[in-house]
């Protein structure tokens, strides 16, 4: 039997709700079709934004949404996306299939989406092909109260009140599609852009620098060395964002049992990234005033047959759900190191939480994990100590732990999220609390009889959470049985 000790007397840190963030890029059918259908659509919408998606996303409590890219961001000129829609320019979307970008969805529409789902907006600026002036003007348009040309333009576009956008990315993947900079050159660019990324009216602004591709310590060291040491007094930097895609093993829906474990194993490498990147940052920023962010992460499967390969559309099975659950457990367990993350991407792209097709919509198994994990947001992460066995796979001594867990406390409630990675065996777990007593528990579980199970428009709810058998409580110890290949949330009442 596996065992979890929950050390309630050792809180880690508050789980920032922004750890449960999303990302929506002008890519494939994420924005057009997925979010934006236009005011004249027969699909029910509010101001052009589809309401089925708003309802489904709201249930996941999206704390923050990053937009407009991704690679798209460094080729996007925000002034194209404001004003009367019929007059907006039509551009070619360079990175994502050279499709025509109508600019129907721009800043006002993005802010509307955020307000509808209760998310904070996070706008990624254009460093690669833009200018500090362009970004400064965008911030003024969003945040300046009134009286300037840009704030009046906002009012003319229907928003007399400022949007108060706090989160601003200074470019995206500037080591790649965002300009192919070296870390040293990017530090120079960062300095220029961040100087003019202004806190208009003294409103707080959170500038996010482009971090490494995966766990690249060299990028981080060189960036901060140039920014902090070579330049001396640097402009502000509040956040630093890495990207990590765990990729694939097999395809989105076809994989062997070994490939099931292989992908989970790759997902678990997120922990190394978080610990090691934070350790490098600590050498420059020991007080942790700069937040570590992972603003793109998730699975990336081979293109689905019959789809435009540049649209990055992929199915999402119970395996993707476990990738999400394992990764979110890592973020919760390192709530003292991670301040924001954004799964890629919200709708119809990569590890989407929602898929749409015409007027149909479904929540993917990954989306259901976000619904299940929502109670962690804003709660106090607590330490969980695990005794578990490892599952060997692939015949080369590679191993995946069978159990993953994270816990958080809010008042007298303890939320535990547990993953049984075993493809076919259930797992009995004994849970001991230290610092409080359990006064009953209930649970919800996401599981499937087949490790390839996924939701389709013909069967949109094949994989969805159901009530779990409540764990037995005896002498203060909880006993739970976790289904094979499952994600479970236990809600424990504490005395
Ligand atoms: O999420 C898809 C793409 O992946 C993003 O545009 C880019 O930032 C990353 O390489």
The oligomerization state is single chain
Strand order across the biggest sheet? 23-22-26-20-19-16-1-21-25-24
Average pLDDT number: 97
CATH class of the largest domain: Alpha Beta
Number of strands: 26
Number of helices: 10
The tally of domains stands at 2
**Structural class of the secondary structure composition?**
alpha/beta
Reported by name, the CATH topology of the largest domain is TIM Barrel
Instruction: Assign an overall shape.
Output: globular
Bound molecules: alpha-L-arabinofuranose
What share of residues is helical? 10-25%
Largest beta-sheet characterization:
10 strands, mixed
- pLDDT < 50 runs, ≥5 residues: none
Query: Separation of termini?
Result: 26 Å
Corresponding CATH architecture of the largest domain: Alpha-Beta Barrel
The named CATH superfamily of the largest domain: Glycosidases
Radius of gyration: 22 Å
Mind explaining what this structure looks like?
This protein folds into two domains: 120 residues, Sandwich (Immunoglobulin-like), CATH 2.60.40.1180; 362 residues, Alpha-Beta Barrel (TIM Barrel). The longest helix has 16 residues. With 495 residues, the chain is α/β, with parallel strands linked by helices. The protein has a ten-stranded mixed beta sheet, covered by helices on one side. An eight-stranded parallel beta barrel has the order 2-5-8-9-10-11-12-13, surrounded by six helices. It has a two-stranded antiparallel ribbon with strand order 3-4. Helices cover 24% and strands 30% of the residues. Helix 3 packs across helix 4. The two termini are 26 Å apart. A hairpin with a 4-residue loop joins strand 17 and strand 18.
């Amino acid at each position: 039997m596996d065992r979890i000790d929950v050390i309630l007397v050792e809180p880690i840190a508050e789980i920032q709700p922004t750890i449960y963030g999303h990302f929506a890029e002008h890519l494939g059918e994420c924005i057009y079709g997925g979010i934006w259908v236009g005011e004249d659509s027969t699909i029910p919408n509010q101001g052009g934004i589809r309401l089925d998606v708003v309802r489904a996303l709201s249930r996941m409590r999206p704390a923050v949404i990053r937009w407009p890219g991704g690679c798209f961001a460094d080729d996007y000129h925000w002034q194209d996306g404001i004003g009367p829609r019929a007059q907006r320019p039509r551009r070619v979307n360079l990175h994502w299939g050279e499709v025509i970008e109508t600019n129907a969805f721009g800043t006002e529409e993005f802010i509307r989406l955020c307000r509808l789902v209760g998310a904070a907006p996070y706008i990624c600026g254009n460093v690669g092909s833009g200018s500090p002036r362009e970004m400064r003007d965008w911030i003024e348009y969003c945040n300046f109260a009134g009286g300037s040309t840009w704030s009046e333009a906002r009012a003319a576009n229907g928003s007399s009140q400022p949007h108060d956008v706090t989160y601003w990315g200074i470019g995206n993947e500037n080591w790649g599609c965002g300009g192919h900079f070296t870390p040293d050159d990017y530090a120079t660019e960062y300095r220029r852009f961040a100087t003019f990324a202004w806190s208009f009216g003294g409103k707080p602004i959170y500038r996010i620098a482009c971090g490494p591709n995966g766990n690249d310590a060299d990028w981080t060291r060189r960036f901060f060395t140039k920014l902090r040491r070579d330049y001396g007094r640097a402009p502000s930097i509040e956040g630093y964002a890495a990207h990590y895609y765990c990729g694939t093993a097999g395809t989105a829906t076809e994989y062997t049992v070994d490939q099931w474990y292989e992908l989970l194993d790759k997902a678990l490498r997120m922990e190394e990234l978080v610990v090691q990147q934070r350790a490098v940052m600590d050498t420059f920023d020991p007080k942790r005033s700069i937040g570590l962010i992972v603003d793109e992460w998730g699975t990336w499967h081979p293109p689905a047959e019959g789809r435009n390969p540049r649209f990055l559309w992929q199915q999402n099975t119970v395996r993707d759900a476990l990738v999400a659950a394992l990764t979110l457990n890592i973020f919760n367990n390192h709530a003292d190191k991670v301040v924001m993350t954004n799964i890629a991407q919200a709708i119809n792209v990569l590890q989407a939480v929602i898929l749409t097709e015409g007027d149909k919509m479904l929540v993917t198994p990954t989306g259901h994990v976000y619904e299940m994990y929502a109670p962690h947001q804003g709660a106090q992460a607590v330490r969980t100590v695990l005794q578990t066995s490892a599952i060997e796979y692939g015949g080369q001594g590679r191993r995946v732990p069978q159990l993953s867990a994270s816990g958080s406390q809010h008042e007298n409630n303890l939320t535990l999220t547990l993953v049984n990675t075993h493809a076919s065996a259930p797992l009995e777990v004994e849970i001991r609390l230290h610092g409080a007593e359990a006064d009953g528990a209930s649970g919800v579980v996401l599981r499937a009889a087949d490790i390839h199970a996924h939701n389709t428009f013909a069967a949109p709810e094949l994989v969805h959470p159901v009530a779990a058998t409540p764990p037995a409580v005896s002498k203060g110890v909880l006993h739970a049985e976790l289904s094979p290949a499952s994600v479970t949330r236990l809600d424990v009442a504490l005395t």
